[in-house]
Amino acid sequence: MTEPCDLSATEARALIGRRALSPVELLESCIGRIEATDHAINAMVARDFERARKAAREAEAAVMQGERLGALHGLPVGIKDLTETAGLRTTFGSPLYRDHVPAQDETIVADLRGAGAIVIGKTNTPEWGAGANTRNAVYGATGNPHDPTKSAAGSSGGSAAALAVGQVPIASGSDMGGSLRNPAAFCGVVGFRPSPGVVPSAKRGLGWSPLSTEGPMARNVRDLCLLFSAMVADYREDPLAATIHGRHVRRPGEFYPPPRVDLATLRVAITPDFGFAPTENHIREVFAEKTGLFRHFFAQAEDATPDCGGADEAFAILRAKNFLASHLEKTRKTPDLVGPNVRANVEEGLRYTAEDVARAEVLHTNYYRRWQHFYSRFDIVLSPCMTISPRPWRELYPAEIDGKPTKSYFHWLALPYAVTLATHPAVALPVGRDRNGMPFGLQIVGPRGGDAFVLGVAAALEAALAGDPRTARPVPDIAKLKAAPPIASMPEFLGFA
Length: 497
Description:
alpha+beta, eleven-stranded mixed beta sheet, two-stranded antiparallel sheet, 15% strand
């Protein structure tokens, strides 16, 4: 019998609306799953069970009284620990904020609560989201739910792991170099990087930078779209939240339910590496096998890639500029309380000149324009999400891939940051397992501004692949996790490196 925590978000929300499932029952099932599995993976690191129980009782009363219910009414949600939550510890994975309890919700959390979601706790992240391995000196490492000795990726690793095991039906994340897509791929769930500004933020230090954005995570595309519909907004404080005076440019109804897309009408480009990413041979071969199973679904499927010349240089400089804006002061004043990934980016940023930044901005602009030319021939681009199969979380980042050294601690993220630079929306969709038995994530990249369209493509492809065990979403062994030893007992669990 399916436990309530294993229901999809859309199923649970429908049952709540029909008075066939109590928000209290759903919440208690999620709490039970957290208590049964989190010792093995360390995903839900700060918990707000008592306030969540109060909110669930209030949500149940609203249902019984026939009140108008929000899109997420009664659904427990995990909030990434980079996002401030009123009255609930928010550490950013940093010892500097070990005891930080915000007085107010960030706007995205307030919006989710306003739609009826119930915050159950905070999900783990690397320090300040730096790096794609979720471990820090406050809460320790998050293990992959398919093998807790391996990385859940990051920086939204806690959210992805919590979703995979049914601790929550929906969770928040954020993305610069793939921080929504990377952990979704490693853990076997769905992550979506929206176009910059669609999920607005009043928090970005560099308000005009399109590199970082918040977004939704879920176990399937329809659930993700439900959550996304509650995140879409227009804040004056965000310069990228483009608007037309007196008009609503973005409407939640555009994204949920996902639009119907006929895969047989699509022109699709397929690339294992965007021409430059250090994709390991294993992943190249698995990607070829997976796409070989469904490339005939499309009107046209061609091995092709946008011109990504200059991507490594542009991303390195622009990323470092963002880190300087956010972390220079703390790195100078309290270097012993700042981890190696953040320090590396700050130190790198200090070496760049104004000429370097200007060159990176020009590279970025030309890069974007080349992508637009490429999309005049194609509707969608498919690639692997990640360059490697999950490795042990003790490895802070891959120093080599197939025996070749990586250029930096984030070079192995070239597949997702190729898309970040283009500013196109992208979905990470689980497509079976790789040869190591770990989840394999497919990256589906839409056209400029094509958020609803790419979600529709992902939903159609997910439905077409669900019946084949070679391409269906992989599910963790919950019984095995319940019996697993605590991840906290493993060597090197707590710390930066």
